[in-house]
Amino acid sequence: MRVPLTQLEVVGLRPRLDDALAALQELRLAEVVTIVDPGEAPPDLAELIARTDAVLGLVDQYLSAPSPGHTVLSDAELRSTLARLEPEITTLLATEEGLRGEAESLPRSIDALDALQPLVPELGQLDDRQLANLGLASMALVLDDPDLRIVPALTRQLADLLGRGHLLVTSTPAPGSPVGCLLVLRRRDLPAVDALLGTERIVEVGIPAAYAGRSLRATVEAMRERLVAVPGERERLQDRLAATVAPVAGTLQPTAVALRARAERAVAATQADVSARTFVLRLWVPTKETARIEQTLADRLGRAVAVERLDSGVQAEDQPVLLRNRPGWRPFQQLVGLLSWPARGDLDPTGLTALVLPLFFGVMVGDLVYGAILLVAGWWLKSRRPRQGIIGEVGKVMTLGGAWAVVFGLLYGEALGSLGHRLGLPALWFYRGGPTALEPLLLFALAIGLVHVVLGLLLGIWTAARGHHRRPLASKVGTLLVLAGLFGLAGVAAAEFPAQVLTPAVAALVVGVVVACVSQGALGVLLGPLDLLGALGNVLSYLRLAAVGLASTYLAEVANQLGARGPLLLGVLVATLFHALNLALAAFSPTIQALRLHYVEFFGQFYEGGGRLFAPLGGSVAPGPENLTALPVPATTSPEPVPAVQH
After folding, report:
1. Helix (H) and strand (E) counts for the chain?
2. In angstroms, rounded to a whole number, what is the distance separating the alpha carbons of residues 141 and 506?
3. What does the alpha-carbon distance between residue 457 and residue 540 come to, in Å, rounded to a whole number?
4. Which of 154, 230, 417, 442 falls 20 to 30 Å from 170 in CA-CA distance?
């Protein structure tokens, strides 16, 4: 539901502006309204925040939770701390990154070079000094050549350049692995070969300089020793990082929070109307919290400020929306906001969304086993990760949807599709896979659509009447009369209603068409019928409830039939894979279709959206108070400016 808001005007002495903002920031109950064009945080403060956040991001895994006893660093202390930490942490992290790269690349180089040793055992024992005495040189290359194109090209180029004055030996790589190459050549030809490698742009995984000058065998052995030593070095390096961060681990995080709070107050101060001696702040606050805010400001600032409640005419300007719903409905509040937050005068549709979306999901899934799995999975997500934001919220939605899927699974008599029906599970209503199930399923879907659209129209009529919008009111009344007339005619045609219903049904249809056309003005003859056809199409759109459900039923039937063929173990495996696929589709496709029906067919009848969420001062710095936890608090956004106050 929507929380009523009141606008306050706070007038005070200019030197106390930051104190007033600090008091409001602690309450986290007031949104500052822009009176003049908002500015930005001071550059030096923004720079400190950026540097602190950068350091925190680099060493986040080494930080411990700050205790209440930790103090906030002053700007000078923070600059000194950052000047000491930044180069040291950067150096340590760069070293750690190099060690990680070594740990990843050494096994590939070892495998490629080790494969060369059996091919040239004599050369494998000669180092660079011994080869130089013979007037020779060697080059060991590890080439990334997954499609085996580089090695033949290199062989041809070397033959053209050196003739017979070289020896090139390559290992036989496994698919996708690097190719080891050992090139022995006259020492005087080294510059020409280096130039050739650069010209051909061969992708080379070079051997580190630490292994230069060694024989092939010694290189491989040294690499293996290094590979064993790297994990210990990484562990010692991480200990050094932790020791470096430990002295300031408890103060950096509170200091970063304090800096962001200062920056928020600095920006809020630019939204006030300030003169040489006084300031004027305008605030949106929850109506029930007005007295608390007035008392807090009076206790903190005494006679240095005065608070006035503005009249309703001023309050209507750019009013944000504050929603407070039951804890179980909060995930659905996020789904409402995913489309658009309620505008001024809109209803809060969170409750209806919480009731209808899981029901639609259950109608489409309608399987006892699938629903139970989704119910357990949702309960696990909700209970194991309650504080991790979106994961816990998804768990709550999944739990409700799974529960309704279990209910409709009992009504349909489905458990893993037709398996439950074959094992004797009774359908409390009708079995969707039966030969006579199509008609009642389609009628059920149309009935849901009619009720849902009519409810949306009734809400639209109420909203339009409350806002004194005559044309939308007439249009929705006409649409409602047309749907009522068509419903009556369909009932008479199906012999479900007595013949006496025919006359009022025709009258409602005619009157509805006339009212709908008149409500559209000069083009009503064209636009009126189009709107009515759109409303009828909205009702027919709910046939997707039946279509998606039948698709899930038939896919489950395919899984069961495939599982019944062939050996038992293979059949169970195939059936499990297909049921897992169907379950994955059941978790996503019905959710999307239910949201589509709710957003388009239902919200389209009464919901305008386009509202702005209440963003209290202090909400972007720390979590909100208990009385506002129903509201996810975003970063403060600035509304449109209103005329400045002259004083």
Report:
1. 21, 8
2. 89
3. 16
4. 230
Residue 515 in contact with residue 478, Cβ under 8 Å? Answer: yes
Q: In 433-476, where do the E strands start and end?
A: none
**SS3 for 54-95, per residue?**
HHHHHCHHHCCCCCCCCCCCCHHHHHHHHHHHHHHHHHHHHH
CA distances from 129 to 126, 135, 136 (A): 8, 10, 9
Helix (H) or strand (E) holding 235: helix 216-245
Q: How far apart are the first and last CA of the chain?
A: 38
How do beta strands 166-170 and 179-186 pair? antiparallel
Q: How far is CA 325 from CA 346, 463, 514, 612, in A?
A: 16, 20, 40, 17
pLDDT of 414:
93
Find out whether 396 and 389 touch, Cβ atoms under 8 Å.
no
**Residue in 310, 158, 142, 133 with CA at minimum distance from that of residue 220:** 142
Integer angstrom CA distances of residue 256 from 51, 54, 55, 161, 272: 10, 11, 10, 63, 25
Alpha-carbon distances, residue 438 vs 66, 433, 451, 548, 550 (angstroms): 62, 8, 20, 13, 9
Contact 258, 49 (CB under 8 A): no
Q: Is 6 helix (H, G, I), strand (E, B) or coil?
A: strand
- Kindly report the number of other CB atoms within 10 A of residue 110's CB atom: 20
Return the pLDDT at 102. 85
Give the DSSP H/E element, type plus range, for residue 407.
Answer: helix 390-412
What's at 204, amino acid-wise? E
- SS3 of residue 566 by DSSP: coil
Q: What is the Cα–Cα distance from 396 to 327, expressed in whole angstroms?
A: 10
* Residue with token string 């409709």: 408
Scan for tokens 């799974």, then name that residue.
402
Would you call 145 exposed, middle or buried from its count of C-beta atoms within 10 A (0-12, 13-18, 19+)? buried
DSSP state at residue 562: H
Residue 305 pairs with which residues in a beta bridge? 12
User: What are phi and psi for residue 283, nearest 5 degrees?
Assistant: -135, 140
Separation between Cα atoms, residue 625 and residue 192, nearest integer Å: 74
The 3-state DSSP class for residue 50 equals helix
Question: Are the C-beta atoms of 641 and 35 separated by less than 8 Å?
Answer: yes
- Quick: pLDDT tens for 520-557: 887 778 888 888 888 899 999 999 999 999 999 999 99
Answer positive or negative: Cα dihedral of 56, 62, 67, 72. negative
- DSSP code string of 339-403: H-BPPTT----HHHHHHHHHHHHHHHH--HHHHHHHHHHHHHHHHH-TTSTHHHHHHHHHHHHHH
Give residue-wise pLDDT tens across range 31-78. 998 877 767 778 888 898 888 888 888 777 666 555 555 678 888 988
What pairs with residue 278 in β-bridges? 13
For tokens 């008149």, name the residue. Answer: 518
- Measured between alpha carbons, how far is 612 from 609 in angstroms, rounded to an integer? 9
Judge whether 279 and 14 are in contact, CB under 8 Å: yes
Instruction: Give the β-pairing of 136-143 and 166-170.
Output: unpaired
